[in-house]
Amino acid sequence: MTNAPLDLRQLFDDLVRFETELWSSLDATLVRECGVALGTFNTLLIVSKTPNCRVNDLATALSITVGGASQAVDRVEARGLLVRVANPANRRSSLLQLTDAGREALESASRVFDNELSIWFGIPLGRASGRFADDLSTLRAAAARRRADGGQRAT
Question: CATH number for the domain including 17?
């Protein structure tokens, strides 16, 4: 370990390029082995674990706009993997539910996704993966506070 000052620009570059490489690899593997793109998998995963999931919930979970989440839902719904159903608590919104085909796609893609994650993170990082996960959680929480404060400095 070195005492040299942290190069934040290099950190940013490494983080963004790694995310791009990770996304591209996971996406290609999921499409090749399951016929499900990573964006679709993410949508199915969030809908499956979010009770009474709405488009707004999906947008929040993915850190994207409601419009972007709605378009994602349109694409996944067009494939027959989820449906919008009337929200009994609020007629102005709908709830998202997986179809049988969506549950099957999620189950199949989950196995491939988990295996790929162990290759990308578990093996290279070993015991340091827990620290890495904690650090990323800290950064995401700071980003959420920054958004909530209207873009002011994260603390």
Answer: 1.10.10.10
d(CA 25, CA 82): 25
Name the DSSP class of 119. Answer: I
3-state secondary structure of 112: helix
Provide the domain limits for residue 91.
Answer: 12-126
Burial 8-17 (b: 16+ CB within 10 A, else e): eeeeeeeeee
Residue 132: the pLDDT is 86
Evaluate whether residue 86 is within a structural domain: yes
Contact between residue 47 and residue 105 where contact means Cβ atoms under 8 Å apart: no
Picking from 75, 97, 80, 99, the residue whose alpha carbon sits closest to that of residue 88 is: 97
CA-closest candidate to residue 56, choices 65, 46, 45, 44: 65
pTM comes to 0.83
